[in-house]
Automatic annotation (TrEMBL):
<keyword id="KW-0325">Glycoprotein</keyword>
<keyword id="KW-0106">Calcium</keyword>
<keyword id="KW-0107">Calcium channel</keyword>
<dbReference type="InterPro" id="IPR013608">
    <property type="entry name" value="VWA_N"/>
</dbReference>
<dbReference type="InterPro" id="IPR013680">
    <property type="entry name" value="VDCC_a2/dsu"/>
</dbReference>
<keyword id="KW-0472">Membrane</keyword>
<dbReference type="InterPro" id="IPR036465">
    <property type="entry name" value="vWFA_dom_sf"/>
</dbReference>
<dbReference type="Pfam" id="PF00092">
    <property type="entry name" value="VWA"/>
</dbReference>
<keyword id="KW-0851">Voltage-gated channel</keyword>
<dbReference type="Pfam" id="PF08473">
    <property type="entry name" value="VGCC_alpha2"/>
</dbReference>
<keyword id="KW-0406">Ion transport</keyword>
<keyword id="KW-0812">Transmembrane</keyword>
<keyword id="KW-0813">Transport</keyword>
<keyword id="KW-0407">Ion channel</keyword>
<keyword id="KW-0109">Calcium transport</keyword>
<keyword id="KW-0732">Signal</keyword>
<dbReference type="InterPro" id="IPR051173">
    <property type="entry name" value="Ca_channel_alpha-2/delta"/>
</dbReference>
């Protein structure tokens, strides 16, 4: 069997060859492991760790400060914070502050109603008032313009140094209204009496800011007086009557069904006007209202088919969603209004029975170019005799043939009829329905106090004139309606307007003692709808530097920031005004969202009486639940407060410097000194907080001399690697020492107002303080500050450590100290340490200089501080060494934590529509005027033959894809090292080779040295990134999200109807001037076209 022998020999040879290959591979692996001996990496890590900790401890003075606090250990008392008592006290403080604001508004209401009662309307009244646009304006001859007299304006610190007049108010009139209209002149005249009350309110409560009266006639009286500037088109778009505070105060919550006629006769301009009318109605709806939109011809078409048969809350997101769908409407067929009315009545009735809506006013808005019947049988069956659903009818177009039918429908159902002929008519005519809905409240004479959600009104001059970082100030408005008390107008229920004042959200934060909430603790407040009024995680702006508002910034739900509470236990309890406690594990991001702190929070919450708000306080378990009190003499403390390196948190309220004008210029440090020395007996200060500030000043005083001696010793820090030493205490007290001149600082923004994350502010402790508190006591946390750009440009390293009184978790963290050093200095220490070896002859078997290995220094979140490739500094390790990071995750050295961002903005390609038509553009207005004249001359031709062509010519739209930023939900990872794993070695099978690595923890730090063999590229492993991924919802889930109604609490008052209400004033046909012949012929054709 020679063949068999040959086969066996061949097989044996192959076996031997395979064995040799396996042996060689094993040798290669063994060799690779020998290239990175663990003992050498340990030596490097130990050498670097010892050196850098010695530098950090020496220059920060951490051991000296720890020793000084220990010396006072017996003299301090440690208390556990009672969260419920704390939140109740804070709520009481806020209640008192809010009450002062509402009382100021109430005084304005009383003064306005009294002034109007005494005034008799004079159609010929001539009155020169201060017009906010025209004040201080002169003509070519140098004379003041009419209504533009001299109005003294001076910068005022309380009003952000804007030029204002604190003795007088001035008046803004919308661009589309006549300045000297008799109704406006009379209203301005009698409301002048408010000037005295404005000034008196400001004297009583110097913390007040803008006060105002928005008239139902359209003018807006504002105090203090300020100059208004038109936009580039010479237009001021502001109309107080479509502001949320006005609408909310003037009307009660409502459920609204909007019916839009899309029959064939609505083609062209009519459909455009109809869509604009719907959009304007949506503008008048707020968070307490519910709505749906149905388009009808011979069939019903829900604008959002998913919401068939139900209503949704009129929050901004839902309204914008419907606006986008309006563009899909087109006109065809015959209008069957009866089926649309029946659907609307049934929907309102069914939704009312669910108990989810407003349970107050209900209305049907009908937008059509005509109705051939009055549909009294439908109304008799579904709405009479109670007439619980008001009918508002909007006749689109110039024809008046069907006006009587539409007016009858409105009048028979306690509504209002109006006709809209042009786009310019839309807003004024839509506003009419608000006056009708306000009647019951006016007749009841119920001055309900309303509070808005947090918002920014960028159309106001004070917002436009401020710099970007100041102007976009979140605020809430307290407002009350003003009624006519004249007897002859009682049944008519005439609303005169609304008065209000703004309360910046930052004013709320001043009432919160941040020092009692601990390092990670915070306070937050929500509205009756669950929307955030204030929360440290609320991010209303995007594109840092541009300061642009997110579209849905004012309706961010608490569940979107406290997202770990999947069952909305916390949110729902607060909405229902409960007082209780709730605990859960949370994942809080810091450092621009790149790092995560995992902790357990205890939440305490209660309601703020007299407002729709609820207040919550979050305290982190462990050191965050404890507070300590120290005691030193005032003399000792004052002496040490005088040291030049001392500062206090600007946004904390140690003393209330807003109460008296003479105190407003004082810094908090000056106010404390004046208070303690008795120089300012009228100052109101937090005695408990000031006592603790004095204690911290005394205990930390020796460190100032210590830093000074280091700075003066020329042999120390000769290469000026360490630039800054700093400390902060739990009272917002800080000390800073520079080891180099201010102009030599590598990071000029550090510890300044420009670097908000690293200073004490109203929301949080500095980043270096928060991170140090979560480190093992005695160890330092090192980090590279992340820049705001796409690439990390940082050239410094920050190191900080926490100071504790006791050696357990019940000890409060009393302070944190640290240094900032040059990155180049820090990296040089690393490379020096990595060249050490244990051999006696000085020849090292391995070095970070070797070409076949890469050395890295990473932190506990996986970010690179040192790499041979300098451009990788600040990058995430997984992006550079994906295979190694993947292995570390598998082995448990690092763990991935999934985070969610429900306030994200994602780039998306969207179809952009650029319309050439704008009523506010003077050129387009000119063409619109020509069009109007020609339309009047040839009404029939324009209306039925040329309308489509004519209108489409003026509204030529360019469709193209445009990349925009849209609100979205994202999911993204963060990474944290496992503290218990000190060192790890591993091999990675990379298809044709093995990649070996060693990771070694640096003692007393949050750092790890990682040494990786680079002979294997491991391209089969993808990089691990921290890029967020947009969460995409399928159509079914989108629909469920739209339909879902989170628990909300209705406003306590409702004024839907009143038996004395005069429903006969229900509108009329205005401005109809067409000749009979031009009216009859279109009427006939219109009937046949249906």
């Amino acid at each position: 069997m020679p063949g068999t022998g040959t086969l066996l020999r061949t097989f044996a040879a192959l076996l031997a060859l395979s064995w040799t290959a396996v042996s060689l591979r094993s040798v290669a692996v063994a060799g690779a492991e020998q290239q990175i001996p663990l003992s050498v990496v340990k030596l490097w890590a130990s050498a670097f760790g010892g050196e850098i900790r010695s530098i950090a401890a020496k220059y920060s003075g951490s051991q000296l400060l720890q020793k000084k606090y220990k010396e006072y250990e017996k003299d301090v008392t440690i208390e556990e914070i009672d969260g419920l008592q704390l939140v109740k006290k804070l709520a009481k403080n806020m209640e008192e502050m809010f009450h002062k604001k509402s009382e100021a508004v109430r005084r304005l209401v009383e003064a306005a109603e009294e002034a109007h009662l005494k005034h008799e309307f004079d159609a010929d009244l001539q009155y020169e008032y201060f017009n906010a646009v025209l004040i201080n304006e002169r003509d070519e001859d140098g004379n003041y313009l009419e209504l533009g007299k001299e109005f003294i304006l001076e910068p005022n610190e309380h009003f952000n140094n804007l030029p204002v007049n604190v003795t007088l108010s001035d008046v803004q009139v919308p661009t589309n209204m006549y300045n000297k209209d008799p109704a406006i002149v009379n209203g301005v005249y009698w409301s002048e009496s408010l000037n005295k009350v404005f000034v008196d309110n400001f004297d009583r409560d110097p913390s007040l800011i803008w006060q105002y009266f928005g008239s139902a006639k359209g003018f807006f009286r504002q105090y203090p007086g300020i100059k208004w500037e038109p936009d580039e088109n010479g237009v001021i778009a502001f109309d107080c009557r479509n502001r949320k505070w006005y609408i909310q105060a003037a009307t009660s919550p409502k459920d609204v069904v909007i019916l839009v006629d899309v029959s064939g006769s609505m083609k062209g301009l009519r459909l455009t006007i109809a869509k604009q009318t719907v959009s304007s109605i949506l503008d008048t709806l707020g968070d307490d209202d519910f709505f749906n939109i149905i388009a009808y011809n011979e069939e019903l078409h829900y604008v959002e088919p998913c919401l068939n048969g139900t209503l949704v809350q009129a929050d901004r997101a839902n309204k914008e969603h419907f606006r986008e769908h309006l563009d899909k409407l087109f006109a065809k067929g015959i209008g069957m209004l009866d089926i649309a009315l029946i659907e609307a009545f049934n929907m309102l009735s069914d939704f009312n029975h669910t108990g989810q809506g407003s349970i107050c006013s209900q209305a049907i808005m009908l937008i059509t170019d005509g109705a051939v019947d009055t549909y009294d049988a439908t109304f008799a069956k579904y709405n009479w005799p109670d007439r619980k659903v008001r009918i508002f009818t909007y006749l689109i177009g110039r024809e008046s043939a069907f006006a009587d039918n539409l007016k009858w429908m409105a009048c028979a159902n306690k509504g209002f009829f109006t006709q809209i002929s042009t786009l310019a008519d839309v807003q004024e005519n839509v506003m009419e329905y608000l006056h009708v809905l306000s009647r019951p409240k006016v007749i009841d004479q119920e001055h309900d106090v309303i509070w808005t959600e947090a918002y920014v009104d960028s159309t106001l001059p004070q917002a436009q004139k401020l710099a970007d970082d100041q102007g976009l100030v979140l605020m809430t408005t307290v407002a009350m309606p003003v009624f006519s008390k004249q007897n002859e107008t009682r049944a008519k229920g005439i609303l005169l307007g609304v008065v209000g004042t703004d309360v910046p959200v930052k004013e709320l934060l001043k009432t919160i003692p941040k020092y009692k909430l601990g390092i990670h603790g915070y306070a937050f407040a929500i509205t009756n709808n669950g929307y955030i009024l204030t929360h440290p995680e609320l991010r209303p702006l995007y594109e840092e530097g541009k300061k642009r508002r997110k579209p849905n910034y004012s309706s961010v739900d608490l569940s979107e920031v406290e997202w770990e509470d999947r069952d909305d236990v916390l949110r729902n309890a607060m909405v229902n005004r409960k007082t209780a406690k709730f605990s859960m594990e949370v994942k809080k991001t810091v450092d621009k969202g790149k790092r995560v702190l995992v902790m357990t929070n205890d939440y305490y919450y209660t309601d703020i009486k007299g407002t729709p708000f609820s207040l919550g306080v979050a305290l982190s378990k462990g050191h965050g639940k404890y507070f300590f009190r120290g005691n030193v003499s005032i003399e000792e403390g004052l002496h040490d407060l005088e040291q030049p390196d001392v500062s206090l948190a600007d946004e904390w309220s140690y003393c209330n410097t807003d109460l008296h004008p003479e105190h407003r210029h004082m810094s908090q440090l000056t106010a404390i000194k004046n208070y303690l020395t008795g120089k300012e007996p009228l100052l109101h200060c937090d005695k408990e907080l000031i006592q603790e500030v004095l204690f911290d000043a005394v205990v930390s005083a020796p460190i100032e001399a210590y830093w000074t001696s280091l700075a003066l010793n020329k042999s120390e820090n000769s290469d000026k690697g360490v630039e800054v030493a700093f400390l902060g205490t739990r009272t917002g007290f800080s000390r800073v020492n520079l080891f180099v001149g201010p102009e030599q600082l590598t990071n000029q923004d550090f510890l300044t107002a420009e670097d908000k994350e690293n200073i004490f502010n109203a929301d949080h402790f500095p980043l270096w303080y928060r991170r140090a508190a979560e480190q093992i006591p005695g160890s330092f946390v090192y980090s590279i500050p992340f820049s705001t750009g796409t690439a990390n440009k940082s050239n410094v390293v920050t190191a900080s450590t926490a100071i504790q009184l006791l050696d357990d978790r019940k000890s409060p963290v009393v302070a944190a100290v640290g240094i900032q050093m040059k990155l180049e200095f820090f990296q040089r220490k690393f490379w020096t340490a990595s060249r050490q070896c244990t051999s006696l002859d000085g020849r090292c078997s391995i070095s970070c200089d070797d070409e076949n290995i890469n050395c890295y220094l990473i932190d506990n979140n996986g970010f690179i501080l040192v790499s041979e490739d300098y451009t990788q500094t600040g990058s995430f390790f997984g992006e550079v060494e994906g295979a190694v990071m993947n292995k570390l995750l598998i082995m448990g050295s690092f763990k991935r934590i999934t985070l969610y961002d429900y306030q994200a903005m994602c780039r998306t390609n969207k179809e952009s529509t650029d319309s050439a038509y704008s009523l506010l553009d003077p050129y387009k207005a000119f063409f619109a005027a020509i069009k109007w004249i020609l339309t009047e001359l040839v009404l029939f031709l324009v209306e039925f033959n040329l309308c489509n062509w004519w209108h489409s010519d003026l509204t030529a739209k360019a469709q193209r894809l445009k990349q925009t930023l849209e609100p979205c939900d994202t999911e993204y990872p963060a990474f944290v090292s496992e503290r218990t794993i000190k060192e790890t070695t591993g091999n990675i099978d990379c298809d044709d080779c093995l990649k070996s690595f060693v990771i070694q923890q640096i003692q007393n730090s949050n750092l790890f040295m990682v040494v990786v063999s680079n002979e294997c590229s491991c391209e089969s492993f993808s990089p691990i990134t921290m890029e967020p991924i947009e969460i995409r919802y399928n159509e079914s889930l989108k629909c469920e999200r739209l339909k879902s109604h989170k628990i909300r609490r209705r406003p306590e008052s409702c004024h839907g109807f009143h038996p004395e209400e005069n429903a006969r004033e229900c509108g009329g046909v205005l401005g109809l001037s067409a000749k009979p012949a031009l009216v009859v012929l279109p009427l006939v054709l219109a009937i046949f076209s249906r």
